[in-house]
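Example record used in the benchmark description.
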Amino acid sequence: MRIDTNNELTRVAKAQAPTPPRKPAIAPDMLDMARVDALDAALEATSEVRVEQVARAKALIRDPGYPSEEVVNQMAEVLSRKL
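Model output (structure tokens):
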């Protein structure tokens, strides 16, 4: 015969103690300027214009078959349903 106890004490005994909160690397009222400077440098290194996308757009503008008649008709249909 097997007896499974439904005892609250067994559950409490198995519970783990909560982990203590981590201490911040710097004082809470101080700002870590190294991280801010790193973010500023990354932002400066990122170009505002994606050259390859601008070149693609220019090529599409010059293409007389863009957008295709099928796409124009589909868009007209979608817009007519919305209005």
